[in-house]
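thought: fold this chain, then report.
action: predict
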Amino acid sequence: MTDQFQLRTYCYLDRMQPQYAAFIGTITLGDLPVEGMAALYIEMAPGNWVFRMIDVAVKSTNVKPGAQIIEREFGMFEVHSFSQSDVLRAGEIVLDRLGLRVEQRVKPKIASEQIITNVDPYQAQLLNRTIRGMMLVPGQTLLVMEMAPAAYVNLAANEAEKAAAINLMHVSGVGRFGRMWMAGTEADIVAARDAAVAAIDAIDGVEE
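observation:
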């Protein structure tokens, strides 16, 4: 490992929620996850380290790879299983191979969050043309949130769905920022926002 290596994200999901799992199934190029599985997202730089680390994870434990992505700056992979212990063990093995502790990951920060009430029908149509998740109904309240490192948005979206009856529209966890959009009643969106913020604030790590 080089001195320039950075463990950007170590993000564990204990139980994928129904809408979150369904949405990820529409965008993943690997093994399809389903509701109830545990998942682990690990993002790193330089990005090419992702090839070695996902190899270690899938050969050492009974987990399935859902994503292996190299983009402009970073590399990210995701593994999942119905066994939480297998997913956690995969993470331990990767960290051991890297010679790192989980506390050495980058601490996430929320870059922006907005709650938009009573969404206009024309704005709803614009958003609905670009999503693979639930449709935005005019008059609903919309939550848009972005954070860095990007892959932590998966935890935020999953925890938000646990907390409230929302419609998950969009999750993107690759690149410099992760982004999610969800809709519902104003009360449910506030509850979802609060759960997402609490989940991100609870992640320890080093300041970037």
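thought: worth noting. Residues 109-201 form a domain with the Alpha-Beta Plaits fold (CATH 3.30.70.1710).
final: tokens above.
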